[in-house]
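STRUCTURE:
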């Protein structure tokens, strides 16, 4: 399977190219299916999520130009994961006794929320790349739930306290970068 540039996929979607759309399904849907089925879903659920993300991406491109900071595959997979996790959270909150009450959120509101979540994720990713290499490395390890002791050993810090302080400083720096961006307030 040959991976193309982000612009290849985005332009193909924007133009409505059946060949590129088929390529996107062939190349990326299996990854989403594996994730969704491992996370209490079905192939049909995965296809629904995948279609929803593609429709949102298409609608978003029609409204404004944007650039994907990661790979197209990473963007697509992250958006699918976010939507599937939101679906799981929604299902876990629903109770058989009053299911109709919990389904009052319309599909339009759900789609808008997904786009907003994706934009927040993109802002996070962009600002994360602006951090020092050391901060990126320590935060990635922290987000992967690596223990303070293991981070200390891997990165050569003197103590776990130093690791905690460094994590705090890096998180603070990231939060500051995000909050000072005009898109954060929008």
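SEQUENCE:
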């Amino acid at each position: 399977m040959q991976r193309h540039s982000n612009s290849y996929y985005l332009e193909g979607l924007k133009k409505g190219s059946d060949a590129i759309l088929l390529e996107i399904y062939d190349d990326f849907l299996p990854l989403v299916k594996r994730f969704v089925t491992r996370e209490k879903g079905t192939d049909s659920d995965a296809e629904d999520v995948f279609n929803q993300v593609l429709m949102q991406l298409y609608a978003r491109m029609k409204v404004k130009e944007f650039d994907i900071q990661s790979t197209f595959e990473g963007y697509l997979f992250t958006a699918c994961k976010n939507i599937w996790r939101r679906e799981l959270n929604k299902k876990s909150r629903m109770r058989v006794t009053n299911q109709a009450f919990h389904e009052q959120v319309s599909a339009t509101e759900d789609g808008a929320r997904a786009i907003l979540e994706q934009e927040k994720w993109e802002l996070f990713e962009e600002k994360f790349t602006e951090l020092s290499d050391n901060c990126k490395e320590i935060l990635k390890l922290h987000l992967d739930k690596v223990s303070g002791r293991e981070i200390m050993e891997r990165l050569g810090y003197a103590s776990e306290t130093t690791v905690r302080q460094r994590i705090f400083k890096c998180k603070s720096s990231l939060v500051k970068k995000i909050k000072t961006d005009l898109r954060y307030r929008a």
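REMARK: Residues 131-186 form one domain.
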